[in-house]
Design goal:
single chain, 95 residues, alpha/beta, three-stranded parallel sheet, 2 helices, flat, disordered N terminus
């Protein structure tokens, strides 16, 4: 039995997406075990009001495979930017 297909949870944070928004995908490849400080830093990031932020976090894949899956979803989606944040770095709030 193979691994299940990647099911990305894409949740734009902009409540009124429109033609003037910047759709960005934030991708993290992880095995699923992250520190609480990292999770708090990710939750604490503030998106500009005209950005529609979506997050992709394939779990249980090797880093290169997970990043390829994220890039594939970015290219197939309606995103203008891709930001990789690894699970071993802590982004500052102004990211």
């Amino acid at each position: 039995m193979g691994r299940p297909a990647l099911a990305l949870t894409l949740n734009p944070t902009n409540p009124k997406p429109g033609h003037n928004t910047v759709p960005i995908l934030i991708g993290t490849s992880t095995l699923g075990i992250v520190r609480m400080e990292w999770a708090n830093a990710m939750q604490g990031m503030v998106a500009p009001p005209n950005w529609a932020v979506s997050r992709a976090c394939p779990t249980g894949y090797r880093t290169a495979d997970a990043q390829n899956m994220i890039v594939d979803n970015m290219l197939r989606g309606n995103f203008k930017a891709l930001l990789f944040i690894e699970d071993d770095t802590m982004p500052p709030a102004e990211t």
